[in-house]
Amino acid sequence: MASNANTQISLAKVAEYVETLTRDPKSKVFVPLGEIYRQSGMVDEAQAVVLKGLKQNPDYGLGYIALGRVLLAKDLPEKAEKAYRKALRFEPENLSALKGLLRLLWNRGDTEGAGEMAETLVRVKPGDPDAEKVLKSLAGRSEKQTGAGASAGKEKTAAGAEKAEGDEPIQTATLADIYVRQGLYAKALNLYRQILASNPQNQEIKRKAQAAQKRLDEQRSEAEPDTTASNEGAAGAQEQIAARDTETPPNASDSVEATIRVLESWLDGIRQRREHVQ
Question: Quick one: which of 17, 83, 209, 214 could link to 67 by a disulfide (CB 3.0–4.6 Å)?
């Protein structure tokens, strides 16, 4: 019964859309009409309707999305990709176009393109599950490649080190950039070094690696005390920190600030002793 009812609704909609297009060939109802045809398995009819509608509405992004879906249904992924990209020219942040293109590229094995599209999708819709799944998968692959590259690094030949600039996997550089934005400078630096190992002349990656190294050094200098301090001073600082650790801080940030104050007072004491000796 439900199937018959749905069929009747679809037929009624088809009749309505066809009548609308007969009265107004420029109407944009060609998109839902094409969708009904496609979902009913009438892909040739769907393609004909959508192409005819796009002739009347050549700058209608949703029309190209509908065309992309039809072309995928006809197993024409290259043409479908062109349709999705054209849709994004008119509507750069259209989620249907972004998701459709992401799935197409990923299913085709184009990890580089899928990574770039996933990044774009995350910027438009933070936390999108499809984009997050792709980025997580690429990150896992990159970490495995990094480990394998480290163990096999000594066996690289001179010819392998002479790759032309631009041959490094773009998805690796993209992941490194993501790590930088997340403050994971050590991971980013590791990936940049992996790229430079095979392409030492890549100036852009060199610049990014230097910037990541600088940020990592700053991060470490903020987190670590002066390692040249005397044992006496270190012991005193540890006692003060241990004493404060027995207290119950109001919150985690207060505890961190208290520790920093102790370390700063310890460093001041060391500086004063050094000045006195000099």
Answer: 83
- Length of the chain, in residues: 278
Angstrom distance (rounded) from CA 275 to CA 278: 5
* Token couple for 108: 């085709």
The superfamily in CATH containing domain 7-91 is: Tetratricopeptide repeat domain (1.25.40.10)
* Residues 61-74: b if buried by 16+ CB within 10 A, e if exposed: bbbbbbbbbbbbbe
Q: Residues spanned by CATH 1.25.40.10 within the chain?
A: 7-91
- With a cut of 70, say whether residue 239 has pLDDT above it: no
Query: 95 pLDDT band (50/70/90 cuts)?
Result: very high
The dihedral formed by the CA atoms of 209, 213, 215 and 219, expressed in degrees to the nearest 10:
150
Give the N- to C-terminal CA distance of the chain in Å, as an integer. 97
220: nearest Cα among 186, 270, 194, 254? 186
> How large is the angle between the packed helices 185-198 and 129-152, nearest 10 degrees?
60
Tell me the range of 69-78, 150-159, 216-225 where mean pLDDT is highest. Answer: 69-78
Residues 133-154: tens digit of each pLDDT: 999 888 877 666 555 554 555 4
> What's this model's pTM, rounded to 2 decimal places?
0.52
The alpha carbon of 130 is separated from its chain's Cα centroid by a whole number of angstroms, namely: 11
Residue 272 has pLDDT above 70, yes or no: no
Q: Which residues contact 187 (CB under 8 A, 6 or more apart)?
A: 176, 179
Query: What's the pLDDT tens digit per position in 103-138?
Result: 999 999 998 999 999 999 999 999 999 999 999 888
- Alpha carbon dihedral 168, 174, 179, 182, in 10-degree steps, equals 160
CA-wise closest residue to 17 among 38, 3, 34, 1:
34
